[in-house]
Write a structure and sequence with these properties.
The chain is an alpha/beta fold. It has 9 helices and 11 strands.
Length: about 260
């Protein structure tokens, strides 16, 4: 058994068949990590004391606030070029406006998580309104993805806007078996900067941390612009991309979404 296979067995990761990627020099997706809400209800060191069980130089790519077709399509093209899979935390309102883009994200093998309906500061609104934001966001994403409005997410992954949450909101999601994602490092692409500045910032942070869940925003033009160069940086510097899916999700079923 190879070292990679041993690590996969120990960590619940499954290796991805390299034959799935037609470009031999592509970065590729090295592993699939099944994330179980019971074992890891909250992950991301920027917000919580624990994160995903990643080996050194392993990263998880995540994108918030989409879909936004002009830029999301560019991000998807860059990911496809390198045979990389990521997780997109969608705003329900945007998903309801662009259902075909939601379907495309899933069709291309990426994981769809949830990011409320309208992106409020969740710690600053009453609990009943916060619960409604969670449920409406999930329902809108599911409607766009599957044509069925349900508050039970097909992939139970959620990220709070601005990473703000109350304990009651965290407890609610845990009781529903939904993993709350924070992040381990940020691209800080909500700040005004050039694409070159963003690329330098995120690569410097990644070089310092060595691994982790990275937060980008696919509606940001500067992020879409740097994605090809960032993915080549990962390849050239020995980083490996891990694709997160819900526990119990096989790759075949993920591909069929």
């Amino acid at each position: 058994m190879s070292a990679g296979a041993v690590l996969a067995a120990l960590t619940g990761m499954a290796p991805v068949d390299a034959a799935e990627c037609p470009r031999k020099d592509a970065l590729g997706t090295s592993r699939i990590l099944n994330v179980d809400a019971k074992a890891t209800p909250r992950v991301g060191l920027k917000s919580f004391p624990q994160t995903l069980a990643l080996a050194d130089r392993e990263i998880v790519l995540t994108f918030d606030d989409g879909p936004h077709p002009p830029t999301t399509s560019k991000v998807l093209a860059a990911l496809a070029q390198e045979c990389v899979r990521a997780t997109f935390f969608l705003i329900g309102l945007h998903a309801s406006e662009h259902p075909e883009m939601v379907k495309r994200i899933a069709r291309e093998g990426h994981t769809i998580g949830h990011h409320t309906f309208s992106h409020p500061f969740m710690a600053r609104i009453p609990f009943d309104k916060a619960k409604s934001e969670i449920d409406r966001g999930i329902a809108a994403d599911e409607m766009a993805l599957h044509g069925t409005s349900t508050t039970t997410p097909s992939t139970p992954f959620f990220r709070f806007p601005y990473f703000e949450a109350t304990q009651a909101e965290l407890d609610l999601l845990q009781s529903r078996g939904i993993v709350v994602f924070g992040a381990d490092l940020w691209a800080s692409d909500w700040n005004e900067m050039t694409p070159e500045q963003e690329l330098r910032l995120v690569t410097e942070r990644l070089a310092a941390s060595g691994k982790g869940i990275i937060l980008f925003h696919d509606p940001k033009a500067r992020t879409a612009a740097i994605m090809p160069a960032f993915l080549r940086y990962l390849k050239d510097n020995g980083f490996r991309v891990v694709h997160v899916v819900a526990a119990g999700t096989s790759q075949k079923s993920a591909d069929a979404r």
